[in-house]
Request: fold
Amino acid sequence: MTNAHNSITDTHDLFDTALITRLANESYRESVGLAQSSSPLQRPSSSVPIVPTAFVGIPDGLSGIAGTPPTFPTTPAAFSGERPDHTNLAGGYPSATAAYPGSGRTEQPSRSATARSGDDLASGEHLPDSPDVYPFGEPRCNGSFKAPKTDAHSVHSVSDFYFLPGTDPQGAAASAEPSGSHALSLLEVNAIRRDFPALHQRVHGHPLIWFDNAATTQKPRSVIEATARFYRQDNSNIHRAAHALAARSSELYEGGREKVRQFIGAADSKEIVFVRGTTEAINLVAQTYGRAHIGAGDEILLTTMEHHANIVPWQLLAQQTGAVIRVAPINDAGELILDAVASLIGPRTKLVALTHVSNALGTINPIETVVGWARAYGARVLVDGAQSIPHMPINVQTLGCDFFVFSGHKLFGPTGIGVLYGKLPLLEEMPPYQGGGNMIRDVTFEHTTYQGSPQKFEAGTPDIAGVIGLGAAVDYLSHLGMPAVAGYEHALLEYATHALSSVRGLQLIGTAATKASVLSFVMDGIPNERVGQYLDRHGIAVRSGHHCAQPTVRRFGHEGTVRPSLAFYNTYEEIDRLVEALHELRRT
Reply:
């Protein structure tokens, strides 16, 4: 009903949501035989291992040390057939049912039992009587979804060449002891490579070598299958109906949010906002938090090594508000000059925005140190994590930053999906970024009230399949273990750095003591574009250009570089082929 001003009263329920929800619940209970019981659907238990099939029977240790390529078996013992079984990865969506507190379940559900979807679940197997529901009746999955825990075995923590100490998914500090060779023992690269279909093709008659991982990563089968299965069986809009497919899609979407929360160590899934990518996340913060808290004469501190996505939004904000942009310099190795950073942070500093890992140089920045300096003056810190999250364990509570942003496609997930992490009190006070459906509580022509975080920042129909695919990518990486990924990639980086030094006239750009898996270089007398084209004719994909980081590249006197970038599915043999091709190019 409406009042004289045509505004919705407290008793208004245009669609009689309570009745729809009750009837849907009764229908669900009848369909699964629960009319006389409130217990959730029971499933048989089994003893499926919690690691991917490809990792069963991994050898005790790999011999891969920087400069000494390991020898991998041609046919891993882990494989019983041509393709691995992915049912215990996220391609078969694990249901949130077993994770609800007080559900009555006592047994541990098997991995295969949870890998079920629309073809055999009458209603998404949610709990109809859950008191915590969305506005239109579907049970919430917020905070209750339990993603599979990584089977760490002998991994102690991230290696000591990174700035982050090891932490568990909830933020409790773990051992800071370097993982060393234990990290390598978890990666059987030939088995992993079979999970990535795009790697198994020929380009210009040569096997593809994908060294463009800093631009985007290839996708494992589990991610591809997760998105395809959603469209095949579960496709529905979320949060807007009481029917079965809406319940399933809502559960999968919010399950993806909870997986991301655990993966980055956030305190609450309400701190996870889905956006299109890193660029949109930074623009969102600039135009919401920035417009509300940064004014004329206030200072925004950036660094010379920022991606354009972490420069231009702040320039736009400065133009709108009269704020001043300061820039912290870097040295000839591509490292922040920390004394200069400290001196640039002061009473006028309102926000520090810096990259965690430089996309053009690979430099890893000491985020916790910078956060400490900013805190002393009450400044907020935004961290661009697009290049760090694929390569090392991340715990946002340990970092201490106020905002952390990244893109799914650089985390082996789909394109068009990304994440803004923000501390909940900040998100709750920030105004909406866009208006539309899903982000509102109540709308009249006179006044609109908004949902809380994260819904108020997710106007309209979101990229549901993208979130599901991102959740599948997080599952895949969690099974590998990010300390293992970091250790293996660091060994690859050291090997590649040494190998490239043998190429006459090749100059590495970015030689920081602490780096992630990025190598930028120029070759005397040979244009970057020619290098990139020559490598492409040999099946080697690298990026050539300014990498959307023109101030960074120009700091070293260049307009662009050639940038091979590594991932855990790359091999020492591929690095050898890259170096051989560069030697051949030099001889031509």
About this structure: DSSP finds 17 helices and 17 strands in the chain.
